[in-house]
Design a protein that fits this description.
- The chain has 15 helices and 7 strands.
- Helix 10 runs parallel beside helix 15.
- It has 371 residues and is an alpha/beta fold.
- The two termini are 26 Å apart.
- The protein is elongated and about 85 Å long.
- The mean pLDDT is 84.
- It folds into 2 domains: 70 residues, no CATH class; 263 residues, no CATH class.
- The strands form 2 sheets. It has a 4-stranded parallel β-sheet.
Amino acid sequence: MGHHDDDTISALRRCKFVYMSRYKNFDQKLYSSDKASLNKVLMYVTENPPAQDKNVTSVEEVIANLPTPDEWMQEGYYPVALADYSPEVVADIYKGLEPAQLPALVNAHLHSTFLSHYPDGILLLSPFPDKLNALHHPARELAHRIASCPLNNPIPEPCPPNLRICTPCKKPAAIASPDRLEETTKSFTLGTIPHPFVTIELTNKDDISLMNDPEKTLLRYIRRKSVRDPWIKEVTKDPYMTSELGSPRRVSKIKELVVPKLGSKFLSIWSTDKEGFKDIEWTLGFVPPTIAELKLQLRPTEEKQKKKLHNAMTAAVLGKKNIIGVVEAWHDGDTEVWKFVNAWRERRILERAQWTYEEKKFGHGLDKGER
């Protein structure tokens, strides 16, 4: 229930420990250990008769009776990022809460904590907004879902157990639609990367269409008139960037933002016209409300633009493979970013599938469709 770069959360995420440890005043709820230290304790418990005393009910009691307990287990301060929803705590803080309401309360606290980390709200990356409105529509819906105050909160006012003083959400977070990337830690960014074929088809100013005109005409058009890598040039434009800055450096910068280094405070979710936004709950850590639950009426996309986007996205099926290959070769920067994000999304999906497979052994933390 803390920020993503919190020291405790980062340590648990890395799973790299150098000794067995617990947290002060956190009872027996969480231990961490490297393999060697854990094996040492387990071997002592199983081989030392006094450790098997029926009156001993925990590893802590075993270690406490050792001559030098500090050498076996370290004790750290209570981590502010961990929230305790044990029955005793819930009964004390959230009086009258039904057991069945606890998941909704935890989800609401996770959502509100997330919003508190981004005081400037949500940034919806929207280059060429008039031309790519249909492309950005799924991201716009997701932005409103994330920016809304938590719904279905059984007890709206009380704060999370680890944060006794907080400001309950009263109005949705702000949503901005910049046409270029803003590397800020005060906003959460959503970005959709189109295939260069889609970008050209939707943004070209001429009457020519990559879907209908003869192939020879299109080849001349792509090489002579189309701007190379228009998407990455648009989203990385900056007063301090010179026109000589090439695509490789721009591509490298976008990759760093899509997959930030450990400890980076810039967070975002990226998708493409191929992948879409999947496993949002897995990425965010909470379940945002649906558009139907929010009863939102977003501005609809023009049917003509929706049809044009659909045709461009299915161009390969419609027999435009040769033209697509030429477009990818000519716009290698836009193509590289598009392929990179697709690969990253597929990797995340595989990670989720592997986690689901492992969790099936325990039967917890899965929805009905995953069991």
